[in-house]
Amino acid sequence: MSLQTWLLFVTTVFFVSATPGPNMLLAMTHGIHYGVRRTLMTCCGLMTALGLIMLGSVAGLGALLATSELLFSIVKYAGALYLVYLGVKTWRSLPQPVAELREDDSGKHGPWALFRRGFLVAMSNPKAFIFFTALFPQFMNAHQPQGPQLAILAATFYLIESCWQLSYASGGARLARWLNSARRLRLVNRFSGGAFVGAGLLLTGLSRQ
Q1: Cα–Cα–Cα angle for 185, 189, 195, nearest 5°?
Q2: pTM of the predicted model, to two decimals?
Q3: How many Å apart are CA 113 and CA 94, to the nearest integer?
Q4: How does this chain sit within the bilayer (predicted)?
């Protein structure tokens, strides 16, 4: 892989990762409610899922999803249902002072719960498998060993994606003080909930192409 090819990959991933989607929305929402430090567990969940998606794509799951309408539909609707569920739950949640949430380190606000939420949101989009299956080969040299090239691309993606997630979480955390009123927090919950529901409904319209 040439330096020029790698820089093109960096540029592509930089703008793709920057695009607001369910992953970044979750990082920002958790940044608002829990602060950057605790949102690191959310980001760990998101990145763990993305790592599994990359491995699945390399192992051929992406190609299988691209050819099997039934399997793609099962994964797609399961992901859509989870996003809609998360959206409705967020919409209906009562506004709770940010300071209290940041101190609540148990139950549905504990580290494992935040990790699980991040993991499930990132895993909810079957097109991500196809995305990596289609993306990586475009930047690989077929005449050079594939393993090292995949490792470089995966590490580069991980670094850029995690930086954007932390940026969104930090942006949310900076907004927390201004948003820390019942009316504004209710608006945040409804905006985030509506966005997750919208993402879930959009997901049902995805095709394998």
Answers
A1: 140
A2: 0.73
A3: 18
A4: Multi-pass membrane protein
Query: Which pair of tokens denotes residue 17?
Result: 């990762």
Q: Which two tokens stand for residue 86?
A: 């998360």
In angstroms, the CA 154 to CA 150 distance is 6
For 15, residues 6+ apart whose C-beta sits below 8 A from its C-beta are none
Using the 8-state DSSP alphabet, how is residue 141 labeled?
A: -
- Token match 């491995």: residue? 55
Mapped to the 3 state alphabet, what secondary structure does 63-91 carry? HHHHHCHHHHHHHHHHHHHHHHHHHHHHH
Look up residue 153 and give its two tokens.
Answer: 């691309």
**pLDDT for 124-171, tens place per residue?**
877 677 777 777 777 777 678 877 888 888 899 989 999 999 998 998
Hey, what are 206's tokens? 């995805």
